[in-house]
Amino acid sequence: MPFMKRNSIRFSLLTQRYLMAGAIVLTALTFSGCSQKKSASTADPSAPLPEVQVTHVRQGTVQQTVQLNATAVFRRQHVLKSPVTGYVVKSFAEPGQMVRKGDPVFVIETKESRALGNSLDSLNRKLGLSGRMTIRASVSGYVAAISHQTGDFVPEGEPLATINDRNSMVFILNIPVEWPSIIRRGESLPVQLPDGRKLSGVVTETLPSVDQAAQTRQVIIRVDKAGVVPEGLIAKVSLVQQEKANTQILPKAAVLANETENHFWVMKMHGKETAVKVPVTTGIQTADSVEILAPQFQPSDEILTTGNYGVPDTLNVKVIR
């Protein structure tokens, strides 16, 4: 009996110790929770709100463009040929030189005149003959190639030089065949040169052939007042792939997307200090604008353009006007 009494006393003491320990733990947890709740409730009001800027949806026209290369070429080349058999006495032109129609390019002495020498000088003076012939440029343009120099013997019909007709200069644009209606005859297109000049071009024709390897067709663009444009120069031409008028447009900074860019949204102000996440459906995108197909926003709706990246679905903000 004394043994059972001692065990009962021990059990009672242990129970009291466990109860006291449990009470201490519960008290600590309760105090900690209250402390955190108190700190949270006091931290939020005192913390400064993030400052953001907003914009409004505008109605307008948006275009999706593509930039392609266009190469400068001369479509007509004139070949100067020797009308007689003889020798090149003088050459006035050099490759790349600009010549005008009627400018002297070569002087040819006939082989008969050189063979007879001075024996026919008196006859030549009486008849007004010199035995020499001046070859003049048939068009205004650039000398592309010189085939003979001073002293060369040339037979009749021998090519002497090639002149690129300045008035035949055009830009050839290669367009993929899968874009059949992206360009039309008579359409005006700006042609951007590497030196910064912008020329006004007009589509004159489309060649009835396709490059078999690249599967592109050639479009001819004629420009006015081009000035000096060397053959082979590559310019830039912007074409409108798609255009939409009277549609909702937002700045690109206002539209956010996930990593795979298959889900888009904006942060829209709801009240004076709260921004909420609104999923959107996008259309045409340009370098600085995005078309919004849905939902339909009001002109007074405010959309965040700054402070909207990596934020929760609902955010308290301060709008900077």
UniProtKB/TrEMBL annotation:
SUPFAM superfamilies in UniProt: Single hybrid motif
GO CC terms, sorted: efflux pump complex
Gene3D superfamilies: 2.40.420.20, 2.40.50.100
Molecular function (Gene Ontology), one example: efflux transmembrane transporter activity
CDD domains in alphabetical order: biotinyl_domain (cd06850)
Protein name, entry field: Biotin carboxyl carrier protein
Organism, scientific name: Prolixibacter denitrificans
